[in-house]
Design a protein that fits this description.
two-stranded antiparallel sheet; 9 strands; five-stranded parallel sheet
């Protein structure tokens, strides 16, 4: 994967392009070797690369602690892994990273910022976490990018304050919905008690299989709502399962963020 920053003509070390000289260009900028091959004078422009800031939100709500009976990792662990791996790639490309809502919320680059992110993601969770999360009201860098990793199973209204701020700042980004395999397939049968991760909601059924169709219809509706929100705001959407390879999600994210460079 190559360098990912936004590039345009300016002061730098790498050649960008030749352009025909216009009145007002200093003679010191003329590339006489290139100009000698034609009747016009040409300016040799160098590349200027602007570091892009990527703000990352990893949902730490209780619902993200869920891990199905056949899963090795929780949704929160998978989201954190993708976030940290993306930060490594962005840092290597000279970008600045901010992990929203914690000690790494100030956009920075370098190994120290990666260490702050790793400690934040692996650290103890707050005791007052809600069942479903919403991105914090951290300031996002103007013209930057954002990545929101969550199961997005709560009401989408909780996203609106952060998305309104992102719009004001000219920030576009990506929604990454992370779900467990069992949350998509709904493989449950017989008598079961469904309980929210915080214990606030409890539902008992004698025929769990009979709920599958209605559940999957509601999940499809939520995904359609998230996709429509993304289309309206210019954000892209990725649906990821913890049973899938994180590498594919990481590559998709890297390319999606690259599509927005100036």
């Amino acid at each position: 994967m190559g360098v990912h920053g936004r590039r345009r003509a300016g002061h730098g070390e790498n050649f960008w392009q030749y352009r025909q000289a216009v009145p007002g260009d200093p003679r010191s900028m003329v590339d006489w070797r290139r100009s000698g091959r034609s009747d016009a004078q040409f300016i040799r422009e160098m590349e200027w690369e602007a570091a892009q800031t990527v703000s990352v939100w990893v949902d730490d709500a209780l619902s993200m602690d869920y891990r199905g009976p056949d899963s090795e990792r929780s949704k929160r662990e998978r989201a954190g892994l993708i976030a940290l791996a993306l930060a490594v790639l962005m840092t290597k490309a000279g970008e600045r990273i901010a992990l929203m809502g914690g000690t790494a919320a100030q956009p920075r680059g370098g190994r120290a910022q990666l260490n702050r992110m790793a400690l934040e993601l692996a650290g103890p969770r707050r005791e007052d976490r809600p069942d479903y999360g919403a991105p914090p009201s951290d300031r996002m860098a103007r013209g930057g990018r954002a990545v929101f990793l969550s199961d997005f199973l709560g009401e989408t209204g909780g996203l609106m304050p952060a998305l309104a701020h992102a719009g004001d700042q000219g920030v576009r980004g990506v929604f990454v919905q992370v779900l467990d395999e069992s949350e998509e397939a709904f493989p449950f049968d017989g008598r079961l008690i469904f309980e929210s991760m915080g214990g606030g909601t409890r539902f008992e059924t004698q025929r769990a299989r009979a709920l599958q169709e209605a559940y999957q219809a509601r999940l499809a509706a939520r995904r359609a709502e998230l996709s429509a929100l993304g289309a309206r705001l210019g954000w892209r959407v990725l649906f990821h399962r913890t049973s899938q390879s994180p590498r594919s999600a990481l590559l998709w994210l890297y390319m999606a963020l690259g599509d927005g460079r100036g």
